[in-house]
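Human
Can I borrow your eye for a moment on a structure tokenisation matter? Give me a protein, with the fold worked out from its sequence. Write it directly below this note and I will take it from there.

Assistant
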Amino acid sequence: MIKFSGFCASLALGISLALPAAAQDATAATVLATVNGVEITVGDLITSRNALPDQYKTLPDDVLFKGLLDQLVQQEALMQSLGETLTKKDTLALADQRRNYLSNVALGAGIATAVTEQAIQAAYDAKYKEAAPTLEYHAAHILVDSAEKAADLLKQIEGGAAFADVAKANSTDGSAASGGDLGWFGTGAMVKPFEDAVIAATIGEVAGPVQTDFGWHLILVSETRNSAAPTLADVHDEIGAELQKTAMAEFIKSVTDAAQITRNDTAIDPAVIKDLTLLDK
């Protein structure tokens, strides 16, 4: 979008400004200006404002009104200066913008009723209402790059060195500064070899060395607790996002499944999408 502050302020050829209507009398069709006979209306300004980034929407109404009207007048004059001839690049760019906008309109309409408070409550009940409490673990670890290093550190700890001190001096990840403390976590939060070792560990005893894709770990589980299901308020937005994502996927699939689609892309070199010269041919 063209920035409107001070841009092309001198463009005035063929422009006439309509007398402002009283706010209570304005409609989307109220004409605010014409550029060589083409009308710019209140509806045009509303649409332009709605598309602005949020930081611009906080500007005073009178500033936005004047700035957007100036911008639309200037843009219309610039557009008209091209005449009727558009390049292939221009035509394809306009088609792309139209396709993108209208596909989002269709998608929004298609999932408009998918995320309701009733649907969120039902999804919450299905996931959590009968769920048994789950076990959470409070653990710390030391991460190093070899089994030999991990075994040597384990001997130091068994010889009386404090786990946290050894972690601060030797662990290679960000938890070292806090003595390797990883806080509380449940199943599914850690990679499987690490999680399996945590589940099997005896509280207060160091487990390992355990190998993961990150390296070699020594693990100390200090305590466990039962975690009750989260409240609806805790997961309200998360469930809403999940419902929306599912509804979007289902709607897109239903629409594309109903469409007659043929594809002829298998023989095309994917690198063709970088060849801008094709737009000039």
Confidence is low (pLDDT under 50) at residues 1-13. The longest strand covers residues 215-227.
